[in-house]
Design goal:
By secondary structure, the chain is of the alpha/beta class. It has two domains: 103 residues, Ribosome hibernation promotion factor-like (Double Stranded RNA Binding Domain, 2-Layer Sandwich); 43 residues, 2-Layer Sandwich (SHC Adaptor Protein). Helix content is 30%, strand content 29%.
């Protein structure tokens, strides 16, 4: 990891710099190279401020802490960064696994709730795709065709309107018809 420390309103101290570098080393196991860490240490009257920015693996995280002691400010900022890095890595893994699934099922909902989240049930996904050919016919002919097939729907081009329609079988044995409506502004 590439590291830099900047001192503002504070005399540069090798011990503070070494302390910050040593503490940043614990993030090497979470981040892939190239990672860049920038530490800005500032003193304003009685406040000691540690601001740390890390950019790596396609994300940037920031932490800002103010205390009465510079060492504790660095520690608290690093604790915040630790939580953020773990959270981002978890999101990245989840996003990557969702992307791998979406290659298999290209029409799967991208925001599928995970099975780990008890509040949300997983969204159904498209498990197979079927291409159909539809031909021009009137509604009465479509009803006759529907009686001959076992499918629960029939897609056809309405001969009168030249629009795609869907005829579907209802549970009571009757039929429903889906026709596109024109939206006029």
């Amino acid at each position: 990891m590439q590291k830099s420390v900047t001192f503002m309103n504070l005399d540069p101290s090798e011990t503070l710099k070494a302390y910050a570098f040593e503490k940043l080393d614990r993030f090497d196991k979470y981040l892939e190279n190239p990672a860049k860490a920038t530490v800005v240490l500032t003193v304003e009257k009685f406040r000691h401020i540690a601001e740390i920015n890390i950019s790596a693996d396609g994300f940037v995280i920031n932490a800002h802490e103010e205390t009465s002691d510079m060492y504790s400010a660095i520690d608290m900022a690093l604790d915040k960064l630790d939580k953020q890095i773990k959270k981002n890595k978890k999101k990245f893994k989840k996003r990557r696994s969702t992307a791998a699934r979406s290659k298999t099922f290209p029409y799967e909902e991208a925001g599928v709730a995970s099975s780990e989240d008890p509040e949300h049930e997983p969204m159904p996904r498209i498990m197979r795709m079927k291409s159909i050919e539809y031909k021009p016919m009137d509604v009465d002919e479509a009803v006759l065709q529907m009686r001959l097939i076992k499918d629960s729907f029939l897609v056809f081009t309405n001969a009168q309107s030249q629009q795609v329609n869907v005829l579907y079988r209802l549970k009571d044995g009757n039929y429903g018809l889906i026709q596109p409506s024109s939206q006029s502004s």
